[in-house]
Design goal:
Number of domains: 2
Radius of gyration: 22 Å
Order of helices and strands: EHEHHEHHHHHHEHEHHHHH
Number of strands: 5
Shape: globular
Number of helices: 15
Helix content: 40-55%
CATH architecture of the largest domain: 3-Layer(aba) Sandwich
CATH topology of the largest domain: Rossmann fold
CATH class of the largest domain: Alpha Beta
């Protein structure tokens, strides 16, 4: 690859098969970046442990499913490096060394960490209440929160910085809400370079369009909410999910004017309309018809099924072909680890020398 290409680094936590929010929010952009940048995309299995350390039974299966989805969606290992984080131990070594110089206050004041801790505590509390049943005494949210007050969870931005800096990533694809994460990585790199010399590149954000993909119920699409549309939905399950989507509770009949966009009358907006914007050419006309009371919700949903059926069928076909190759994922990850490790070893040689460790 050309020396003048931007180096892009990004990863995903392996939580199983991907949903369309993962595809439109990250994976689609990854695929386009491989045409112009030197890209390293990794399975963030160590990052999964920061919140999912108590249950790793499905980890290896989830890794395989996620990588198969990457490949089926069009991420080409001939155009980028695809590997598993834990296959390159230099990630852990660099994280350890960076942790020696990272201020504790940087981690404790990370707004994203505070928000994630709060949200995860609420989710765990809700799950505990649901499991206990309506007559049981709910467990306090604080007890769930303490499960996440770990060294690994607090320090995950240091590992995240190591993931990027190890490959001297010059660009990191992020949304606006992820800028505080990246700025912390830049701070960590700056402090290291101030103490030991200019070894690590300061990664810059590559702000990418990340459309907000609502789930079936109008909330953010998330596996924790159980409101996702998987990219591997069968034709039958896709139809069932689309027909159950949240639209506009005030639109009781076809001739009632609708509110497809988020507004006071329909704060979440219509999920069906949001997906039309991604899958249906001429989606603006659908909005006009809905607002004018000329399009009913059932007909609208059937139209979306028609728009999504083709891309969904193509993905299923590609996924089935890949799944029929038993060692495909293992081969891709092994080759990717080989390529990634060569770069990682070179960087760590520079780091150790700068820190007088050799």
């Amino acid at each position: 690859m050309s020396e003048h290409r931007e180096v892009v680094v990004s990863g995903m936590r392996p939580t199983g098969r991907l949903h369309i929010g993962n595809y439109w929010g990250a994976l689609k952009n990854w695929i386009s970046l491989t045409e112009s940048c030197q890209c390293y995309f990794f399975v963030a299995d160590w990052h999964m442990l920061t919140t999912g350390y108590a249950d790793t039974g499905a980890l290896q299966a989830n890794i395989r499913e996620m990588v198969l989805d990457w490949l089926a969606a069009g991420l080409d290992p001939a155009k980028c490096v695809i590997f598993k984080q834990s296959d390159v131990p230099e990630h852990a070594e660099l994280a350890l060394l960076l942790g020696m110089t990272t201020s504790l206050s940087w981690l404790e004041n990370n707004p994203t960490w505070k928000e994630q801790l709060h949200e995860l505590a609420k989710t765990k509390h809700a799950q505990a209440v649901a499991a206990a049943g309506p007559t049981a005494e709910p467990a306090p949210a604080a007890a769930s929160r303490e499960d996440l007050c770990t060294y690994g969870f607090l320090g995950y931005p240091v590992l995240q910085a190591a993931d990027i800096l190890l490959y001297k990533g010059s660009r990191v694809p992020v949304g606006q809400d992820q800028l505080p994460h990246l700025e912390l990585s830049r701070e960590i790199a700056r402090r290291f370079n101030h103490l030991f010399g200019p070894v690590l590149a300061e990664p810059k954000p590559l702000l990418t369009p990340t459309p907000k993909i609502p789930g079936l119920d109008g909330r953010k699409m998330s596996k924790s909410y159980g409101n996702t549309v998987d990219i591997l939905e069968s034709a039958q399950s896709l139809q069932a999910k689309i027909m159950s989507m949240y639209t506009d509770p005030s639109k009781l009949r076809k001739d009632t004017p609708g509110h497809p966009e988020p507004c006071a009358e329909n704060p979440p907006g219509c999920v069906v309309y949001a997906l039309h914007k991604l899958y249906t050419p001429g989606w603006e006309k659908i909005g006009e018809e809905c607002r004018a009371g000329r399009l009913g919700c059932v007909a609208d949903k059937k139209s979306l099924i028609g728009s999504m059926d083709g891309p969904s069928a193509e993905f299923r076909k590609a996924r089935e072909a890949l799944a029929a190759q038993p060692q495909r994922v293992e081969v891709v990850l092994a080759e990717g680890a080989r390529q990634a490790a060569a770069v990682a070893r070179a960087t760590m040689s520079e780091v150790r020398k700068a820190m007088r460790l050799r």
